[in-house]
Every structure is written in C-alpha cells, then in structure tokens.
Specification:
Blueprint lengths: L33 H7 L4 E8 L12 H5 L21 H24 L6 E6 L2 H12 E5 L5 E5 L8 E2 L2 E2 L5 E4 L1 H5 L6 H6 L1 H14 L10 H10 L13 E4 L12 E7 L5 H9 L19 E5 L21 E4 L10 E3 L1 E7 L25 E5 L6 E4 L7 H16 L12 H16 L15 H18 L5 E6 L5 E3 L4 E4 L3 E3 L7 E3 L5 H10 L3 E6 L7 E5 L2 E5 L3 E5 L11 E7 L5 H21 L4 E7 L5 H10 L11
Parallel strand pairs: 1-10, 2-8, 2-9, 7-8, 9-10, 25-26
Antiparallel strand pairs: 1-14, 3-4, 5-6, 11-18, 12-17, 13-16, 14-15, 19-20, 21-24, 22-23, 24-25
Helix pairs in contact: 10-11, 10-12
C-alpha cells in the first residue's frame, strides 16, 4: 500500500480536545473547508442574524435562541411528556418562527413564479420529541376534542405549513414531523396519505425490490414509507415532493441531501461548531448549478436562525488546562422513598361566583408591548453576498380580530366550568371588557415599533388573559376561590429528574433523594446539615436542576421565582406518613423590592392556590434571613406545640 487518502469533512480538533476548536490535524495536506466552498459559490450562502430591534443580551435574539427559550420548553421526550391540547410556545420562539416564515412566504412565491417544480423547504431542528410535537402542532395544526366527544383539527399558525383542510388533516401534508417516536409508532402513516400517494408508494416498492434482491415489497412497513418521504423531500414525482416544512429531532445532521432547503430554525443546544456546521450543511446544497452567461453561479442563500454558526475558523495550538474535579449530582434510585413532587404552574386563576362580569383596571393591568421581548426586525448577514432584513408584521389583522382572539383566550383559560366545558354566554361580556382593556392598558403604553396586533402572539395572549382575569376578579362582586393554572405538559415535577455535573464543593446527603447539595453561597452546607439532623425532616432537596418555579409579577413584568429548598416535614398537623407538610424555603440575603414581591407571591398566592387545589397535599412557605437560625425558625413555626387559647378573664 503506497498511500492512504482520507477525505474527511471534519479534519480538525473538537471542543475539549486540548486544542482550540477548529484547529486542523497536523497531518492535513490540503484543506478546502466550508468557508472556501461558500466563498467560491459552489454551495448556498448561509445568512445568520447579526442585529435586531430587541437590543437585549449580547447578540441578536434569534441567533442564540435556545438560551432564551429552553426553560419554557419540555425537558423530556414525548413518552414522558404527553403533548395534548392547545400548543403554547414561548414568545421568543413564536417571533423566530413568524420572522423566518415571512421570508419563506416571499421565497415560496418566487419559486412558484420561476417554475421550480417543488416548494422550498423549511427545517426545524428540536431538542427532544416532546418539543418537536409541540412545535409541529403549533405550526401545522392539532386535534381538539369537542364537548360531544368528537374531534376536529385546528389549523396551524403558519398557513403554508398547515396540515388542516376542512376540519381534518390533509391527504398530503405540508409539514412532516419526523423523529424517533414518530417512526416507532405503528400508526406512523395516515391512511388518507397512503391512498393519495398510491403511485409514489408503488414506485418506492418497485425500487425497493430492485435495490434489495431477495426481499419482498410486503416487507415494507409504514415506518419505511415515512423514512422514504423524508429522504425524498424536494424530489419531483417522489413521496416527499410536496413537503414544505420538516420538524425533526437531530435526524437531519448527516446523510440527508435535499437541495431545496432554504430556511433552518434550531431549537436545541449547539455545543460545538461541528454540530452547527452539520445542521447548517443541510441547507447548503444549491438548487441550481446552471451558470450565468458570464460562467458564474447566481448566489443562493439559506436563512438560519437559532444556530450559533461562526463564519470564522480558529487556528493555533490550545493550552491544556488542569480541570477541576467534576461530580455528578443525581437522584439515587435506592432512595426513591425520599422523592419529592411539586406542581409546575404557569399562573393562578379565581373561580368566580357569578356570571355577571365586570372589571376594575389598575397598574397591574398594564401590558407594555415592546420589541425588547420579541424582535420584529432582524438583519441577517452572510460572509459574502447580500444582507437581508426579516420583519414580522401583523398590522394587517383588524383590531376586532385581536379583541375576539384575546377574549376567546381569556374564556378558554379562566372561564370554563368545572368539567372544562365552554360557557359561551360569557363571551359578549369578555369582548366588551377586552376592548376597554386594550384601549386603557395596552395602546397608551406601547413602546417604539410595537403595535396592538402583537397580542396575537400566543404568549402575549396568555399574559393578556391573565391581566383581564385579575381585573375581572377585582371588579366582580362575591367570594372567589384561588386555584393554580398547571402547565399543559409535565404539570407535576419531581426529584426523579435531577442529573447534572458540578465542580463546586458539595455536601453529601443521607435524607435527600439527591446525592449532593452543591455550595453556591456558603450557607447551603449549613442548612443541609440542619435538615439532616432535624428529626421531623423526612426528606429535602436543593432546588437546583429541579425546574421548580413560582410564577410572579413585579412592576408589570411576569417572571419565575426559584426558591432554594423543598422539605418534607412531619409537622404538628401531620396524621401519618401520607400527611406531611411540604415546606418551601427561601434564604434571603440583601433586601430588594423585587424579592419582597416574590416572597409575597409565594405566601399569599402560590401556597393558597396549591392548598386549595389539594393535588399534592399541604404546602407552606418560609423565608429565612439567617441560615444559622433556620432550625429555630422551623421549630418555632411548624414543630413546637401550638399554645392553647387562654380563657378570657371573668
């Protein structure tokens, strides 16, 4: 053997190798990398966000999108997190989808005018199967169960990608959801699609027998056909010819050669530039290699959001650093009896005593719409070629449409009966109140570039519904009962889900489902030690990696408050091991007004709502200002015998 030639797509060191990421292997003879291919015009030119009108963070909102939306999306796959009902996505994600889709619409019309034959393709790459299902439902439509037990298909939010037609799913879908859960299910192929695509399926079966001698067309499963749909996206006369949007979970990083991809949205973590290049590479195959009369290629562009792709390569040697010892913080299966469950809430609502609704607006009713939260104008820039601007413009929607949409959201979220059925007789009152609220609490407070049609964003419409609900509670007479609004997916969290790594000093536990308590501020070990030795403490957990949050509002801004510890306590009211008090502990340092708002919400809203609901037993909240006095505070409030009332003096 005289020589070995290695034609590698990734001839460089990766992150964590001890070399700067992107440094070429020393044995590389010739390197014609992705940047060379882009500059020479033999692939599409990726355009990524470089600026926008949100002016928040260190970069454009839709470039490092995952950091902004990850906490609001499901953390587990579809098997552990069923996705049913109305799909609710973070406003930043909805903004990214609408902004990229607006550019796709223009491109789709241009392709149709040019007679391209197949539509351009929009790819969404998600973090897990639950997120892909949630995003796919929002984009293409979802199934709603009606009061009579029948179902109807609700149209998706992006018309070119909607799979709904006359209240049912289209025979040939515009959007394809492809992930491991979809492929593993036995009902992966819709019967209507099988009928509509009979000719293409027969062609696939014929080619399958030729490609695999000895096999029978009868061996082909629905999953095989679905894979063929994915593999033939953008190819005329094939099963994937009509697909416009593909929602996937990391299945398109390699081995997928569609040349009609024009838009990519990443909704996942991208730890290395290699992964960024692999995902962006799915959009870089040119649709045409026909040269101009001058012998040059016309530039083709791929619009990329949510993938922190860098056009600059790094060279030079890295310096090997001595790494700190890494410890794994995790839930121990052998301590499952110390498991702690908690509700995952999005807000609060009152059960109303009457059908005669009125509203009283105050400072808390104001919703200030701003491009700070959702970028409406994003500039995308390639390494070479033409800069473009993407805009979201919902101003074409009539205000009556906005009023009806917000009123409907308010009714769906807060004014259904105990069985979940609609109460349509309330809708005219909600429309009247909604119109007055927009006039008084939205329009006067809009910031530069904002407009009231932004209330059509799903997250903004929920925020509007919450404010309207509070105003109606304040303005309607009679006694109300506060209850929680649980998340539509993963409504119950637990210590089972904890698993992460840390280099911090840790306290080793014995009474916690979680093996370690990382020390962030110096007091965690002291409090953990108190809880380990207090006899009435059955179990405890530091609220890190739990994703336990308490929704609150401060100065008109909605947020999520993260307390420090959860404790299962045998208090004076306990009647047995099934009747423990779950105590939420917050260790407070410097006094701040926003912290006071968080604590007040936890005491007067969150605990009241959760206890009224009753789904996870009894709950209480305790603020600790001195961790070295925590034992005394817990004993004084929950463990010492309650004093008996003294007889009045005669």
């Amino acid at each position: 053997m005289r020589a070995v030639y290695d034609l590698s797509a990734t001839p460089f060191f990766l992150k964590g190798s001890g070399y700067a990421e992107g440094t070429l292997f020393p044995w590389v003879v010739s390197d014609f990398g992705l940047m060379d291919a882009i500059e020479s015009g033999i692939v599409k030119i990726p355009r990524v966000p470089v600026s926008d009108d949100s002016m928040t963070g260190e970069g454009p909102m839709y470039r490092d999108l995952w950091l902004r939306v990850r906490d609001a999306l499901p953390r587990k796959g579809i098997r552990d997190t069923p996705i049913d009902g109305l799909p609710v996505i973070p406003k930043e994600l909805e903004g990214a989808l609408r902004s990229l889709y607006a550019d796709y619409e223009r491109g789709h019309r241009a392709w149709a005018d040019a007679g391209m034959g197949t539509p351009p393709v929009f790819i969404v790459v998600c973090s897990n199967t639950a997120t892909s299902k949630l995003v796919s439902d929002w984009i293409s439509g979802w199934v709603r169960e009606l009061p009579d037990g029948t179902t109807t298909v609700v149209p998706g939010n992006l018309p070119f990608f909607s799979n709904e037609q006359n209240g049912r799913f289209r025979d040939r879908p515009n959007t394809l959801l492809v992930d491991s859960a979809q492929l593993d299910r036995g009902d992966a192929l819709d019967p209507a699609f099988r009928k509509a695509a009979a000719a293409e399926i027969d062609r696939f079966k014929h080619e399958y027998v030729i490609r695999f001698p000895g096999r029978s067309a009868d061996d082909i499963t629905d999953e095989d056909i679905l894979r063929e749909v994915m593999n033939t996206v953008g190819k005329r006369g094939r099963l994937g010819e009509h697909i416009r949007c593909v929602v996937s979970v990391a299945m398109l990083t390699e081995g997928w050669d569609a040349n009609t991809v024009t838009h990519i949205l990443g909704i996942r973590a991208f730890g290395t530039q290699l992964l960024c290049e692999q995902v962006v590479g799915r959009a870089l195959r040119r649709a045409s290699y026909d040269p101009t009369p001058e012998g040059l290629f016309e530039p083709e562009y791929a619009e990329v959001y949510g993938v922190p792709f860098s056009f600059l390569s790094v060279t030079g040697k890295g310096r090997v650093k001595v790494a700190k010892a890494v410890r794994e913080v995790r839930a121990l299966p052998e301590r499952s009896d110390l498991r702690i469950e908690f509700p995952r809430m999005t807000g609060y609502r009152y059960q109303m005593p009457t059908d005669q609704l009125d509203a009283r607006f105050d400072a808390a009713s104001i919703l200030a719409l701003s491009t700070q939260d959702v970028a409406l104008k994003t500039e995308v820039d390639p390494i070479v070629g033409q800069i473009a601007t993407h805009e979201i413009d919902l101003r074409d929607h009539r205000m009556q449409t906005v009023v009806f949409a917000v009123a409907k959201r308010t009714m769906d979220n807060h004014f259904r009966d105990e069985d979940g059925a609609e109460r349509p007789w309330l809708f005219p009152q909600l429309v009247r109140i909604t119109k007055a609220w927009i006039d008084e609490c939205v329009t006067p407070y809009m910031k530069d570039g904002a407009f009231p049609q932004m209330l059509l964003f799903v997250e903004y419409s929920h925020a509007a519904a919450d404010r309207l609900h509070r105003a109606i509670v304040a303005g309607t007479r009679g006694e109300k009962r506060l209850v929680p609004v649980l998340r539509p997916y993963e409504p119950i969290g637990s210590t089972d889900d904890v698993r992460y790594e840390t280099t911090k000093t840790c306290y080793e536990t014995t009474r916690s489902h979680i093996n370690l308590v990382p020390q962030d501020s110096g007091w965690e070990s002291k409090l953990a030690d108190v809880l380990e030795h207090l006899p009435e403490v059955v179990a405890y957990a530091k609220n890190q990696g739990l994703n336990f949050k308490i929704p609150y509002t401060y100065e008109g801004r909605a947020g999520n408050y993260v307390p420090d510890f959860l404790i299962r306590l045998r208090d004076q009211a306990s009647t047995g091991s099934d009747d423990l008090l779950t105590l939420v502990i917050e260790v407070t340092g410097e006094a701040k007004k926003e912290k006071q708002a968080k604590v007040a919400t936890a005491e007067h809203l969150w605990t009241v709502a959760v206890n009224n609901w009753g789904g996870l037993g009894r709950w209480a909240f305790l603020e600790v200002t001195d961790p070295w006095d925590a034992e005394h505070l817990i004993k004084a409030k929950y463990l010492e015998p309650w004093p008996t009332a003294e007889a009045p003096a005669s």
